[in-house]
Amino acid sequence: MNAPFAIPEALLLLLDRIQSEGRCETPLILTSRALLEYNYRCFCSLIPVDAVFFPVKTNNTPEVLGCLHNQGARFEAASAVELCLLLRTGIASSDVIFSNPVKSPAHIISAYQAGVRTFAFDTACEVHKIQRHAPQSEVYVRIEVSNDGAEWKLHHKFGAPGSEVIGLCSAARDAGLSPTGLAFHVGWNNAQLASWSGALQHTVQIAESCIRHGFPLRSINIGGGFPAHGGDQYTRLQDIADVLKPMVRILKEELGLLLYAEPGSFIAANACVMVCRVLDVVQRHDQAWVYVDSGINQGFYWIYAGVQYQVVAAQPRSRKTRNYVVTGPTCDSHDIFGDAVELPADLREGDLLLVFPAGAYVSSARNYNGFAYPDVLFA
Ligand SMILES: Cc1ncc(COP(=O)(O)O)c(C=O)c1O
Question: Is-contact 288 323, C-beta < 8 A?
């Protein structure tokens, strides 16, 4: 379970600082502005993007959105609630796109009323929905690409086969919409270079075909999926940049298209760590249990789907270690960060544990994507 300790120095220094200032009320998600800014700049220097659309679903903390906005980011929203958050943070609706290919009419209406004019789609049904609720908007087709190598695959749920793209663009144009781009997503945390190069090559071929069929596209959006968990994200991004280079040249220089991306985890994941406190250390039969004051239900749901987080002691007193089950404070027996986590043998109540990385899909797990919990009707 425990991957090698790789919590960035900047976060550890931040922890020292807030502790010395008496501001370490646990549990908390400690977020480094410097790391966010560094990741954003690093992404833009390695991938020659014309615009980054940061997905609000990844981290919807207003300070994070504001910080990235100051760096020049634009934003990808999936719901009216996410859009409102962006508008409240001072971000213009013209800097927002909706990349969720299947949307609820109410959210399209709110987005259109707020001034959003760019929407993804991958079915004819969605074309008609956008035509009705966001007339004359620009639309881009989410296409199906291989998600081989992704830790979480998205291609079964979204993406039109390449053979359908011309038909979808025609349907959009007939509906008074402007098909202006193509988009894909290789799946979450995908370091497989063949998937990246294959996806872009496939998309560039489809773009060429669209242009031949009289659809003057403007952009290709290579989505998210850049690796951020479980390895050195910077060298892995460099490798991806290298394999994409020949296709990026064709896309930009031969086809005259803009390159967009929606890196979420790459930018936010390692910029945050969760700081939690040990409530109790208990020996139950042959297992040692550590109870902490925050658990899976506080935003770490992806553990249920197999995603692993490092759990380490913030200030170990000794080097001697033993394995523990690390569990949250709820009555739920699934609320477990790991069942063989190596931690100091003398761990005790009050010690701080760090759960890392905690910047992607953790604090935003509340009302994820901005979709509200169902109301209760008591009759
Ligand atoms: C449309 C879209 N763009 C971007 C992202 C961000 O992906 P990642 O966190 O892998 O960078 C997602 C994540 O699900 C997504 O659905």
Answer: yes
The b-or-e profile of 171-205 (16+ CB within 10 A means b, else e) is bbeebebbbbbbbbbbbbbbbbeebbbbbbbbbbe
Pocket of ligand 1 (CB under 6 A): 55, 58, 76, 99, 185, 188, 223-226, 262-266, 360
* Token duo for residue 277: 């406190």
Burial class (CB in 10 A: 0-12, 13-18, 19+), 337: buried
Q: pTM (2 decimals)?
A: 0.96
Q: Which domains does the chain have, with CATH numbers?
A: 16-26+270-364 (2.40.37.10), 33-269 (3.20.20.10)
| Mean pLDDT in consecutive groups of 10 residues from the start of the chain, 379 residues | 69 96 96 98 98 98 98 97 97 96 96 97 98 98 97 93 98 98 98 98 98 97 96 96 98 98 98 98 97 96 93 95 97 95 97 98 93 90
> Which residue among 43, 58, 121, 182 is best mutated to probe the pocket of ligand 1, counting the most ligand atoms within 8 A of its Cβ?
58
